[in-house]
Amino acid sequence: MVPIGSNPNVDYDSIVVGASPTSLFEAAAMAEAGKRVLVVDRSDKVGGAWSTLSFEDLGIVECGTHYLVDLPNVYPFMEELPGLVLTLLEPPPEYVLARSILGFRRVSFTRKWGSQVSPRLYRGEFSWRSLRNLISPYYRSAMGILSPTPRRKPFKYIVGGTPALVESLEHVVRLGNFDLKLNGKLDDVEIDTISSLVKCRINGDMVCSGELFVPGSAKLTHVLINGIDTQLPGEVIENVQVHFLVDGAKEKKMSFVQFSGSQFAEMASDLTEFYRPNTERPNSRLLSAYVPSDVPRTRSTVEAIIAELKEAGLLEEQARLVDFYWTLVELPQRSREELDKISNLGQGLIRTLYTHSFSMAVSHNAAKWQPAIQEITSSFEAESSNPLSNAEYGKA
Known about the structure:
The chain has about 400 residues and is α/β, with parallel strands linked by helices. The chain is about 30% helix and about 30% strand.
């Protein structure tokens, strides 16, 4: 095979599918190594699942329920991104149980056994497995309550949430020496292993590349390999979420929580400090929740989530629902085995990255991405300290 970067018949050495944070970090690293890189995303902004949403009556909001895990390299790497600042996540993330255990309804993520609480109870036919899954969360929660040993250091999160992350990623794109095509519809992908070419039709235009980079969350379902239509393995998960505004809730009582055994919610976050409202709303809080896909998308469901939060002591009793906004995000999920299969199908022309967990992807790849990000951040800081550069950037 002709080495990547030396094929005169290509427009780019690599085409990256999707503008998620990990895709942009990978693109920056490849560009730093001297490769010509194009990132293509069907959306109108960067960030992928870590982007922002805009509601007419509400403003720009964090797109969903997120947190960063304190795995090796994660916090130091994130703090090196241009203009990005992390702070301690307060209150710390918690698990919310269906019933009180030893007088406790909530368990901290930082406890030794806390992270092993099942997010949802098994609802299938009765079996030894169902009995184990029924008892296990409560046993582990009790162990977490009784154990004095913290499992992790305090959690950190992004000051400004995903809106701030999107701004940082825009600097990565601007200073990263690679090309980005937003609103880019990837119509066809043809892999020719004989000529070592990848042909992508983007918004009707044919672009040739030396490889295709496919992260696990890429919305690419099939390609042509040597003329044969080939389905790419993987499952598309429907993530249903609701953003809801409540009045009469002055105090922040949660950051991120994960429910065990709830019929209405899987996760919930307080996003009040991470959104930019169209109008000032004193004593109001913006919350979000991921819900099971089979739950009715109605006001009653949102009221039920609010009731669960109040019962768990995570929302003030006088809080009342003002408005709510439903969104549906379809996210492909691919295992390492499925990604390996995709790489093998491409015979060296498709490269993949496991991204099921953003924190895990950063932890495993930070050393590879860090030199490029450090160079970008150095350029960003030099711009920030130079008034002339700032003025020129403001005109761009």
